[in-house]
Amino acid sequence: MSIAATPMSFARTMAEAYARRGVDPAAALKAAQITPRQLLQASGRITAQQMEMLSGQAMQDLDDEGLGAFNRRLPWGSYGMLARASLSAPTLGVALKRWCRHHSLIADDLDLRLNESATGAAITVGERTDLARHGQPAREFALVHVLRNIHGLACWYIDSRIPLQEARFPFPAPAHADAYSHMFPGSVRFDAPQAEIRFDAQYLALPLRRDEAALNQMLQRALPLTVLQYRRDRLLVQQVRQALATEPARTHNAQGLATLLNLSPRTLHRQLRDEGATLQQLKDEVRSARARDLLLRTTRPIKQVAAAAGFTNEKSFLRAFRQWTGMSPGEFRKAG
User: Fold this and answer.
1) Which residues are bridge partners to 116 per DSSP?
2) d(Cα 22, Cα 196) in Å, to the nearest integer?
3) Are 161 and 230 in contact, with CB atoms under 8 Å apart?
4) For an engineered disulfide with 223, which of 52, 103, 190, 299 has Cβ 3.0 to 4.6 Å away?
């Protein structure tokens, strides 16, 4: 059963866009099963399916995929054109840079950029015009709509879940702030300098896994991209290895590791299984590599090597190391 987590404020913003164009939203609201009374509920919520129905109908009725947020209309098919223009990119990073550049050409209200740094990647949204000219809820909806769209498209391009490290918004926390945990799983910050989403920059190097046929099929029902949660994370195995190697104190067990990666332990195990790996297997790989490196490069006592490799006692380390190599740590050090 679909959860009603999307703020009714978004539905009201779309109804107001209808009004500014002199078009009656009644048919679209009825199709989305939103009554006039429900529309006025300040703390009301709608389901993702209702949001999809209303958004899709509004985009066609108004011939505007920007839903009245920008100075100029984005005619039906605009976002499909942006997706198609980026489809030939060799990597996700190139595709996102193209998408941001092209979006700024068709909707110059926004300055969309992909930024990379030592701490990760960020898609930022600069505001060139006053998005709040139709009210603060309209500005909120516009920024959420754009960031959800590009995040969903990025996941679709590489057929992978892309966990968000943080989502930031340049306005105070709204009354429905709790809904943001559904729209942007991970850390959410309000009163930020600008709107942006942050994620691991390693995803940018992944190749696109979609072709023209897949794009045509996706565009028949593109809006679910903004709510689809991919099971597969094509970087998860690599991220687990990195976390085990760099955060040994926080990754002694599945709960600690899952918390570090913004997952539940159950989801962590399931997604690793989807990738053909297990947590124990990855732990063994990381611990083995760490232990071998220390044995060959240092003269640390075996007990210290065991602790540095993530073992709580020397006996369990000796047993595990013999299973990995067929030798004791001392024999391995002498042979190396």
Assistant:
1) 121
2) 33
3) yes
4) 52
Check residue 167 and give its pLDDT.
Answer: 97
**The pLDDT of residue 230:** 61
Locate CATH 1.10.10.60 in the chain. Answer: 236-335
Tally of residues, the chain: 336
* Cβ 146 vs Cβ 170: under 8 Å: no
| Per-residue pLDDT reduced to its tens digit, 73-84 | 999 999 999 999
> Could you tell me which residues are beta bridge partners of residue 112?
125
Please tell me the distance from the alpha carbon of residue 79 to that of residue 98, in angstroms, as a whole number. 13
CB 67 within 8 A of CB 59: yes
Contact present, 167 and 197 (Cβ < 8 Å): yes
Distance CA 123, CA 83 (A): 16
Is the pLDDT at 227 greater than 50, yes or no?
no
Residue ranges in 159-264 assigned as alpha helix (H) = 180-183, 212-219, 236-246, 254-260
Q: Where are the beta strands (DSSP E) in the chain?
A: 4-7, 45-47, 110-117, 120-127, 166-168, 187-189, 195-199
Dihedral of CA atoms 326, 329, 331, 333 in degrees, nearest 10, equals 120
Tens-place pLDDT, residues 53-77: 999 999 999 999 999 999 999 999 9
pLDDT in tens, 287-304: 999 999 999 999 999 999
Q: Considering just the CA atoms, what is the radius of gyration of the chain in Å?
A: 24
Share of the chain residues as helix, strand and coil, in percent rounded to the nearest 5 = 55, 10, 35
pTM (two decimals): 0.75
Q: In the prediction, which pLDDT does 312 show?
A: 82
Cα separation, 306 vs 292, in Å, equals: 11
Tokens of 142: 């516009």
Identify the bridge partners of residue 110 per DSSP, sorted by sequence position.
127
Q: Are 306 and 313 in contact (CB under 8 A)?
A: yes
* Residue 70, SS3 per DSSP: coil
Contact, 206 vs 39, CB < 8 A?
no
Domain over 236-335 is classified CATH 3.40.190.10:
no
